[in-house]
Amino acid sequence: MSAVREGLPEGRYGRSADERTDRKLKIVGSALGAVLLGVVGWIGWDYVAGQSVSAEVIKFQVISDTEVKVHLEVRKDASVTGVCSLSSQDKGHGEVGRADFTFAQPESRVDEVVSLRTTSRATMIELVGCQPAASAR
Predict the structure, then answer these.
(1) Which is higher by pLDDT, 10 or 25?
(2) Residue 105: pLDDT over 60
């Protein structure tokens, strides 16, 4: 004859202590992940929204061994005077020109072609950065 059990085997049905701990860890991990994502998003938004002057190099043309024409698109508040720094490099990645350009137009978007003087033939132009004129270096 076979013996009939009255109770259920321990740990066979329902959650064990390990499963409850795993569930708590998943909840804590999800909460920390959401907080981290929020912090990264806030830092990104603050960085983008905090820049009152920004620019983009649309194109450039090497005119001669001593001059490069650079087409810049500058975005700023209409009441702000912006200063953008450009650097040019030669084939060996040595700097051959650097200059700051001021944009005082009372417009929020300025398209302008500027002339950058160089010491030798440039092959690359880099926009170093832009800032309001009051905090320009």
Answers:
(1) 25
(2) yes
Looking at residue 136, its pLDDT comes to 45
CA-to-CA separations, 115 to 57, 100, 103, 118, in angstroms, rounded: 13, 11, 14, 10
Biggest alpha carbon distance in the chain? 105
The average pLDDT across 110-136 equals 89
- Averaged over 61-68, what is the pLDDT? 94
Q: By the 8 A CB rule, do 72 and 100 touch?
A: no
The answer for residues whose C-beta is within 8 angstroms of residue 95's C-beta and 6 or more apart is 87, 88, 89
Q: Could you give the CA distance from residue 128 to residue 84 in angstroms, rounded to a whole number?
A: 7
Distance CA 1, CA 89 (A): 94
Residues 126 and 87 sit within 8 Å (Cβ to Cβ): yes
Q: Which residues contact 88 (CB under 8 A, 6 or more apart)?
A: 68, 95, 96, 97, 98, 116, 118, 122, 124, 125, 126
Whether the per-residue pLDDT at 96 is higher than 80: the answer is: yes
